[in-house]
């Protein structure tokens, strides 16, 4: 329940900040904010994502007690990279090089990127140790401060730079208020080990490289849109992408912070077979949430746009998001269901190839698709690239001999989502409004929820029993290896028994 509440808080925060900042800045200034925010994400990913990934994969309550040098190495790496980012941005600012962003906005984007990296790293440490209250405290305080400071900067000053400053200050406030339990004894400065840092880089940097390449697709598209159509159209294009990403990624990421850690713990306690089984269970769970959410977002889009999207963005918002949704759905599935397979297997290199293929498809589609009076063809190119990336990732994942979710579960999720779309589609033709939005949401949740229970999608019945039953505090039964894997283990145990007997 704590993780679910934190997820709801995070999703609501990302949603509200995106909308209010866009409303108060307007399309042109929000276009600058969107590019600066993309730069901040790039700084976070390129500089610090490998540290977060290493913390998720190698740090735990057990290693905290037995190997404090792991945490010390991670901390030293983060501090060193934050210093390097500061020097690079200072050099660029003083160089006089003409950039799309002003020097002040670039510096603030870098600051927000470092702050976001610290936030992601801190929440990863909390989840690795299953510190639910600390995790929730950091998220809620950061989101509350961010809503006030980031939106306040946009409203009071009309400035993209000050809106980003609010994001950075919210992270500092959250860690000051709730981060004390994340301090480890014996993991102070200068206790890190360079060989460990190299191991972490070998593990994490290929994933970072792939993530950067994927992020280059919307970032490059935004830059091209601003060059062809101006910052106003960039703002229109960016808001649709950002809201779609924030809604879907916030949900998937909130699930991932728990589900991936369960896979790590399963491998640590029971071996690779149990970890693969947990990953298959995770995949079904994420798919069961993201599929109906994506379709549901499209179903409510007319009312959503009328009631929530700032007036200056209406019209283009729905057109762009409709074109982007299949790609965003594919991208989220790739990141939170397929990529974890490579993380557990410690085989990151295929993700680089997948990302390069997606970038190539994006470039090819931009050149081949007919251009119009707006950036709609960029949205289609981005969607094509992200779908191609998912297909390539699934093909590479098959080489790992993974355990996939049962075909029955996938078919049931598709059927339930299709039924929800079939029932809700006629309502899209009605006049948008708050009553219609409530009706659509209620009908969609009821339809998918009833079928999820009836078909027992992603072990819905067991999860509900664990949550609301007499043993509500009892954990969900762990995922089991596939029948083939279990049989193979039985054969090996029998062979070992015979060998010992002889």
Helices and strands in order:
Elements: H1 2-58, H2 61-66, H3 68-95, H4 103-128, H5 132-157, H6 160-178, H7 194-229, H8 231-270, H9 272-299, H10 301-307, H11 316-345, H12 349-368, H13 376-397, H14 407-424, H15 434-455, H16 460-468, H17 483-501
| Radius of gyration over all CA atoms, rounded | 23 Å
Largest sheet: none
User: Structural class of the secondary elements?
Assistant: mainly alpha
The fraction of residues assigned to DSSP E strands is under 5%
Structure summary, number of beta strands: 0
The general outline is: globular
Individual helix count: 17
Estimated helix fraction:
over 70%
Number of domains: 2
Order of helices and strands: HHHHHHHHHHHHHHHHH
Whole-Å distance between the termini? 52 Å
What is this structure, in a nutshell?
The chain has 502 residues and is mainly alpha-helical. It has 2 domains: 1-192, no CATH class; 206-481, no CATH class.
Report on this model:
82% of the residues lie in helices and 0% in strands. It has 502 residues and is mostly helical. The protein folds into two domains: 1-192, no CATH class; 206-481, no CATH class. The radius of gyration is 23 Å and the shape is globular. The model is unreliable at 470-475 and 483-502 (pLDDT under 50).
Which structural traits does this protein have?
17 helices, 502 residues, mainly alpha, disordered C terminus, 0% strand, 2 domains, globular
